[in-house]
Each structure stands twice: as structure tokens, then as C-alpha cells.
Design a protein that fits this description.
The chain has 219 residues and is mainly alpha-helical. The protein has helices at 4-27, 33-43, 51-57, 63-79, 83-108, 130-144, 153-176, 182-218.
Length: 219
């Protein structure tokens, strides 16, 4: 695949950054306090009128929403003869977002921040952010495969930007609502991004091979 090495190089950097954050959170968590507090206070300088927006947008990465949307898109891809895309999304959401992120939370056992009151109720551990991981994987996959929805470059780019802003809004919402440290959501984005960047070239390779077989069967 063209640019395969570029995707893997960027994926390597995101994975190393994620690994470094894991090491710091595990053994030297206090070193992140200045970073976390600074961003938390900066985010909370936003207008209180943003409360409704962040309470709304964070729901796009709630467990139920993510599960339902994953099922919808996996089914949509599968029944529209995009089985490789359906498989890629299903593995990402089940293996990485579902199992992987949950196991990491149990391993790091990081408590939720108490710097500010929580505007939503959460019962799981804090690191890495499940909302950040899930939104990066689900909506990030849609960004990568947006050509399946839009053939023209301009509307495709607009859609990718909108979805990218959705991911960003979800990540900021977790800090604004008081339930995550910035390092939690950054780790979730890095975790999800690493998986997407490493697996995207293989997805493209398998998809091309599958499409070529489908063309041959039609002849």
C-alpha cells in the first residue's frame, strides 16, 4: 500500500507516547499534576453556557451509544458488500475499545479526578478514558473510510472535518464535566490512534484483495 511506512511511523510515535504515559501514570503519577491541572483550569474558563453542549456531545461516546452505532455501521458495511471494513470496525470496537481499554483501566486503577465536581456519574476507573478511546476508534474509522460514503473530495473532506471535531468535542467534554484528567483522554486518543494507524495499511491491503476477487467472480 502507498504510504504504508508513513502510517506505521506515525503509529509508532503515538504508541511510544502512549507507553510513556502509561509508565508515568503507573510509577510517577505526581509528575503529571501540573499538566493536568493547567488544562483542567483552562477548559473550565469556558462559558457555563457550554454545559448543555458538553452534556449532549459526551453521549456520543457513552457505552450504549457506541455499542448501538458500532452494530449499525458494522451491519451497514457488511450488507453493502464491505465485509473487510465491517470486520476491521468490529475488531477495533470489541478487542481494543471493549476488552483492551477495560483491562488497562483495571491494571492502572487510577481514581477519577476530584479537582472539580462531576457533572455526570461514572463508576469505572479513570485511565485511559474509555470515551476517548471509543470515539477515536469508532469515528476515526469513519474518517479513514469516508470515501465509501462520499466519492467527491470536497464533501468527503468536510465530513471528515466534522467527524474530527466531534472526536475533539467528546475529548474536551470529559475534562469539562470533571470526570477525567487531560492525561486520561490524551492516553485514550493515543491508544485508539495507534491501533488505527498500524492496522489501516493491512485493512487497505485486504480490502483491495477482496474487491479484486469480487470483480473476478462477476466476470
Amino acid at each position: 500500500m502507498k504510504n504504508k511506512s508513513i502510517y506505521q511511523l506515525i503509529g509508532s510515535f503515538t504508541l511510544l507516547f502512549f507507553a510513556a504515559m502509561c509508565y508515568i501514570v503507573r510509577f510517577y503519577p505526581d509528575t503529571l499534576s501540573g499538566f493536568d491541572r493547567g488544562i483542567i483550569h483552562a477548559v473550565h474558563q469556558l462559558s457555563p453556557q457550554m454545559n448543555g453542549y458538553f452534556l449532549w456531545v459526551t453521549k456520543f461516546a457513552n457505552s450504549i451509544t457506541v455499542i448501538l452505532l458500532s452494530i449499525v455501521f458494522v451491519g451497514l458495511f457488511y450488507f453493502n458488500k464491505q465485509k473487510i471494513t465491517a470486520l476491521w470496525l468490529a475488531i477495533s470496537m470489541a478487542l481494543v475499545s471493549g476488552i483492551g481499554n477495560h483491562l488497562l483501566k483495571l491494571f492502572f486503577h487510577r481514581a477519577r479526578p476530584t479537582i472539580l465536581p462531576h457533572m455526570v456519574t461514572e463508576h469505572s476507573f479513570s485511565f485511559p478514558s474509555g470515551h476517548a478511546t471509543a470515539s477515536t476508534l469508532l469515528y476515526g474509522t469513519l474518517i479513514f473510510v469516508m470515501a465509501l460514503f462520499f466519492k467527491e473530495k470536497t464533501p468527503r473532506l468536510i465530513a471528515q472535518i466534522i467527524v474530527g471535531l466531534l472526536i475533539f468535542s467528546i475529548v474536551v467534554s470529559r475534562i469539562y464535566l470533571g470526570v477525567h484528567y487531560p492525561s486520561d483522554v490524551l492516553a485514550g486518543v493515543l491508544f485508539g490512534s495507534s491501533w488505527l494507524l498500524f492496522t489501516y495499511p493491512y485493512y487497505k491491503q485486504k480490502k483491495l484483495a477482496y474487491d479484486l476477487k469480487a470483480i473476478r467472480r462477476k466476470k
